[in-house]
Amino acid sequence: MSDSKQQQGQINIELDETMAEGIYSNLAIINHSASEFVLDFVCIMPGTPKARVKSRIVLTPQHAKRLVKALAENVHRFELAHGEIKDTEQPAIPLNFGPAGQA
Fold first, then answer.
1. Which residues make Cβ contacts (< 8 Å) with residue 103, sequence separation at least 6?
2. What is the distance between the alpha carbons of residues 55 and 43, in angstroms, rounded to a whole number?
3. For residue 4, what pLDDT band results from cuts at 50, 70 and 90?
4. CA 2 to CA 48: how far, in whole Å?
5. How far from 54 is each of 6, 35, 43, 62, 84, CA to CA, in Å?
6. What secondary structure, in 3-state letters, does the chain show?
7. Listed residue (51, 67, 48, 71) closest to 59, CA to CA
8. What does the pLDDT look like over 32-81, one tens digit per residue?
């Protein structure tokens, strides 16, 4: 394959320093409509009655399905390399999003 054909199939993705730091999340809330999936990532601290959404990702249903597949593949690879990830029971978290709205 020539260099020009190979370069046409590549995507150059940039990651700046701020984005590279990432955002810690210990709760994901997933909602969907007929046209999109909405993933809200939250960081809840023990003993704190209020938390904010730190990041929201909106996906098409097709991209949501691809994300599930890619995540499952990566969890499988991780477990092959590091052992089974133990799933611990988490206490129920009452969620209150304020006034209900519709899109």
1. 33
2. 10
3. low
4. 58
5. 37, 23, 7, 24, 29
6. CCHHHHHHCCCCCCCCHHHHHCCCCCEEEEEECCCCEEEEEECCCCCCCCCCEEEEEEECHHHHHHHHHHHHHHHHHHHHHHCCCCCCCCCCCCCCCCCCCCC
7. 67
8. 999 999 999 999 998 888 999 999 999 999 999 999 999 999 999 999 99
Report residue 86 as tokens.
């133990």
Q: Which residues contact 56 (CB under 8 A, 6 or more apart)?
A: 38, 39, 40, 41
Of the pLDDT bands very low, low, confident and very high (cuts 50, 70, 90), residue 88 is confident
| Residue predicted with more confidence, 7 or 1 | 7
Asked whether the whole model's pTM tops 0.90, one would answer no
**CA-wise closest residue to 48 among 101, 17, 94, 2:** 94
Residue 83 φ/ψ, nearest 5 degrees: 95, 170
Which pLDDT does position 102 carry in this prediction? 46
Residue 39 φ/ψ, nearest 5 degrees: -110, 115
